[in-house]
Write a structure and sequence with these properties.
The protein contains 5 helices and 7 strands. By secondary structure, the chain is of the alpha+beta class.
Length: 160
C-alpha cells in the first residue's frame, strides 16, 4: 500500500507541474496532449486542498512509478448524486510527458490502495471532442455534424 502524507506542505521552492502564468502555450498544450492520448483520468480521490497539495500528491504518486507529469488539472467535485454514496468521488486529470508511460502508469496505479484514500482509479481520459465547450472553443464537429444554431453561435463569436 502506497502511503502519501495527508497534506503536503507547500514549500517556498514548490514548482507547480504546469505554471500557466509562466507559459504562453496553455491552449495548444491542452489540445495536443488530449489528441496524443497523454491525458489520464485519476478518480476515487478524497478532497485535496489547496491545489498545490493536489498537484504535489499527484507528482508523488506518479513519480513513485517513474512517470513524469507535465500538467495536473484542478480537483473536480463529484456530481451531487454521488454525495450519498460511500467512498471518495473527487477526480482530476494528469498529462504525461511520455507516451510510453501511459499504459505502464495505468497498469501500476489503477486499483492501487493508497493509505488514507482507498483504491484509486487510473484510466485513459476520454476524448471529449463532442463536448459543447470544445466545439465552441476549438471548432470540433460532433459525430452527427454540428447543429445549425451551434455553427451560427460559433461563427458569430469568431467574427466579433
Amino acid at each position: 500500500m502506497l502511503s502519501l502524507t495527508d497534506a503536503i506542505p507547500v514549500q517556498s521552492n514548490y514548482k507547480p507541474t504546469f505554471d500557466r502564468y509562466a507559459r504562453n502555450d496553455a491552449s495548444t498544450h491542452f489540445q495536443q496532449t488530449a489528441d496524443q492520448g497523454l491525458r489520464l483520468y485519476v478518480g476515487s480521490l478524497p478532497r485535496i486542498e489547496p491545489q498545490a497539495a493536489a498537484d504535489a500528491q499527484m507528482q508523488e504518486l506518479f513519480g513513485s512509478e517513474g512517470v513524469e507529469l507535465t500538467a495536473v488539472s484542478k480537483m473536480i467535485s463529484p456530481h451531487p448524486s454521488k454525495a450519498s454514496e460511500p467512498g471518495n468521488h473527487y477526480y482530476c486529470f494528469v498529462d504525461l510527458a511520455n507516451a510510453d508511460d501511459v499504459e505502464r502508469a495505468i497498469e501500476a496505479l489503477n486499483g492501487r490502495e493508497v493509505e488514507g484514500w482507498g483504491a484509486i482509479r487510473v484510466n485513459k481520459a476520454k476524448n471529449n471532442q463532442d463536448r459543447k465547450v470544445n466545439r465552441e472553443q476549438f471548432g470540433y464537429q460532433s459525430r452527427n455534424g454540428p447543429k445549425p444554431d451551434e455553427v451560427d453561435v460559433w461563427r458569430r463569436r469568431q467574427e466579433s
